[in-house]
Amino acid sequence: MNYKHKALSALLAATMVFSLAGCGSASSAAPASSAAASTPASSAAAPASSSVAESDLSDAALQAIAKIKEKGVLTISTESKYAPFCFKDNDLNIVGFEPTLMQYLADDLGVKLNIQDVDFTAVIPAVTSGEADIGMAGMVKTAERAEVVDFTQPYHMSGQCVMVLKDNAATFTSFDSFAGKTLGAQKGTLQETILHEQFPDSNAKILDKVPDLVQLLQLGEIDGLIIAVDPAGPYLASHEELATVDPGIVVDPETNGQVACVAKGNEGLVEYLNAVFAKLSADGTLDGWYADAVTLSNEQNAA
């Protein structure tokens, strides 16, 4: 188990102790809507054993998962353009680290999985409107988002960097070196916040999709792209002209891990998800799934 997931296991275990000591009642998860585009999961690992004992869950958690079981389907909203977390393979199946985790959750609950593939900015609205039970899209917790949804503990930890053309990497060593330059970031993300707050002297280019921003970088229309370290990896593996630099980006540890979101007040579902994440982190399953997703993404980019 690597250092990131050792720390993650400890964090999740501590959360489990706290949540089992007392948890508020869960709110109802509204039925999934067919209004948003949805795609069935392609393949994922089924639980090798029962995940979380019901005796370890509060009444609120049991009620929350019972409502999903009654519907017979778990609807999760995501964005499929964020490898290795969630992306499409060459046959257009939605695959990656998060879809594998999604399928595990559905199998653990004994229900079908419905993946809603939407733009990133539509993930939280899908949850707040009741169209999705869970949002899972390489998302991090922010104070603004926490006003409208509840978050789990992280199921993955990731740093932040700036992707640049390799030929220019040596010139970008500090925040000042990006002054007057144009930096890109995906709309509605932590990276957009970082751009505005930590690069005030840079010009901002905000788009909905990361691949479009990468293309602008390759064309020289922007000078850098603020991106999490993990999704930067597949681009570096398949495009030798790209590199990443760290000018000293500062991120609050409380908001620097990938989390799932649920409807505000659904503390029972948060408790259940935290329990599953803690188990999968402790036994190394999350490490394995993430490594598999990175391998698949790299192989696909090399093909």
TrEMBL record:
It comes from bioreactor metagenome. Residues 73-293 form the Solute-binding protein family 3/N-terminal domain. It holds the Pfam family SBP_bac_3. InterPro entries: Solute-binding_3/MltF_N. CDD domains: PBP2_peptides_like. SUPFAM superfamilies: Periplasmic binding protein-like II. The keyword Isomerase does not apply. This is Membrane-bound lytic murein transglycosylase F. Keywords: Signal. The gene is mltF_31.
